[in-house]
Amino acid sequence: MKLKALIIEDEANSRDILRNFLERYCPEVALSGEADNIEAGLELIQSAKPDVVFLDVEMPYGNAFDLLEQLEVRNFETVFVTAYNAYAMEALNNHAAYYLMKPINIEELIKAVTYVKEIKEKEQFLEKRVLKSRIQKAEGKITLPQQDGFKVLDIADIIYCKADDNYTEIFLKDKKYLVSKTLKYFEDALKDFSFARIHKSYLVNVNEVLQYKKGKGGSVVVSNGKELMVSASKKRQFLSHFE
Fold first, then answer.
1. C-alpha separations of 49 from 44, 69, 140, 175, 196 in Å
2. pLDDT band at residue 130, thresholds of 50, 70 and 90?
């Protein structure tokens, strides 16, 4: 598939370099427009409906995060482009697909485009099909330590697990348990079953996923009706569970 792309960057020279690199090294990208400020960038995003936006962080009268906050719906992937690594954490919190440092490294740019393309292809594939995990239903049991002993659960009954500092909440269809183990503990314990880490706070049984929603990093709706965020860094791995 061709990726419809936008460049939002206030420096003309930087736009020229990125445009030339994309045309020369990333044939899967179709550039649909450019903007040099937040207001023009916002209008362009809303009209062009891109797959990916290459977004400079610092611009006149605001920054990239100010622009993103004005969007009610974000159905595109964001590749931040900046000369400052101080924004890396904020970019992560804003569900960046990739973070490119200036001057742009061609190999990193190709990696960013490849990453976004894989995500968009999987999203497009899933939109046309009912979600069905490639992994068979989890068979087996897991022991949850309790203050007065332990509780044994069928793994297949777990919908998702949520981190709560050094504790983990285990959500079933009709109840939940709070366990004095980290989410990483359960990620390791359930790695051979149908569970995927979709966020720093969530481990989900992929067989209980009813819907995937595109967005900042995306989100899933599970069988108990809860909507859980998917972080950009976990999205590709999560989507690989489905065909």
1. 8, 16, 45, 41, 30
2. very low
What is the bridge-based pairing of β-strands 29-35 and 3-8? parallel
pLDDT for 127 equals 57
Total length of the chain: 243
For the domain 141-239, what is the CATH superfamily, name and number? LytTr DNA-binding domain (2.40.50.1020)
Domain 3-127, what fold? Rossmann fold (3.40.50)
pLDDT tens-digit readout, 57-68? 888 777 888 888
Contacting residues for 165 by C-beta, under 8 A, at least 6 apart: none
As a whole number of angstroms, the distance between CA 50 and CA 31 comes to 9
DSSP-based three-state secondary structure for 27: coil
* 3-state secondary structure string across 121-132: HHHHHHHCCCCC
The pLDDT assigned to 111 comes to 94
List the chain domain ranges.
Answer: 3-127, 141-239
For residue range 166-202, what is the model confidence (pLDDT) as tens digits? 899 999 988 999 998 999 999 998 888 889 999 999 9
Dig out the tokens for 171 from the structure.
Answer: 């959500």
pLDDT of residue 62: 78
Asked if 200 and 170 count as a contact pair (C-beta separation under 8 A), the reply is no
> DSSP labels for 52-77?
EEEEESEETTEEHHHHHHT-S---SE
Q: Which residues pair with 168 in a beta bridge?
A: 163, 179
State pTM to two decimals: 0.63
* H/E stretch holding 91: helix 88-93
